[in-house]
């Protein structure tokens, strides 16, 4: 039952409609459907994890900028002031504290 071929072309035989190819049989197997379901659920979980990790990183970063950076700046300023006082005391000849 070959299809009518045009001049110069090759025709393939028609497949019977009730027989499935081996790829179709494999793609319909329970192992493949289970694997697809597991992959889908894994990707959803990974997406949620990535989103929550991003939120945690945002909270950590902004907290660091608001609280820790000014503290570091103030500690540096205090250290510079102590160094300046120590330098002035050594120049004036008074004993350091």
Word description of this protein:
By secondary structure, this protein is mainly α. The protein has a domain of 55 residues. 71% of the residues lie in helices and 0% in strands. The chain has 2 helices and no strands. It is rod-shaped and about 110 Å long. The termini are far apart.
Topology diagram in text:
Elements: H1 22-27, H2 30-92
Label the overall shape: rod-shaped
For the report, how would you describe the main beta sheet? none
> What proportion strand?
under 5%
Order of helices and strands: HH
List how many beta strands DSSP finds.
0
The number of helices is: 2
**Roughly what percent helix?**
over 70%
What is the averaged pLDDT score? 83
- The computed structural class is mainly alpha
Low-confidence stretches: none
Calculate Rg over CA atoms.
38 Å
End-to-end Cα distance: 108 Å
Brief rundown of the structure:
The chain has helices at 22-27, 30-92. With 97 residues, it is mainly α. The protein has a domain at 37-91.
Structural key phrases:
97 residues; mainly alpha; 2 helices; 0% strand; Tom22_pln
């Amino acid at each position: 039952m070959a299809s009518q071929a045009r001049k110069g072309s090759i025709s393939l035989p028609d497949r019977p409609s009730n027989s499935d190819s081996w790829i179709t049989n494999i793609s319909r197997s329970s192992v493949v459907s289970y694997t697809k379901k597991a992959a889908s659920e894994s990707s959803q979980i990974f997406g949620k994890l990535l989103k929550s990790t991003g939120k945690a990183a945002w909270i950590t970063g902004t907290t660091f900028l608001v609280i820790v950076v000014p503290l570091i700046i103030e500690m540096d300023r205090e250290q510079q002031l102590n160094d300046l006082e120590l330098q002035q005391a050594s120049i004036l000849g008074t004993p350091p504290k």
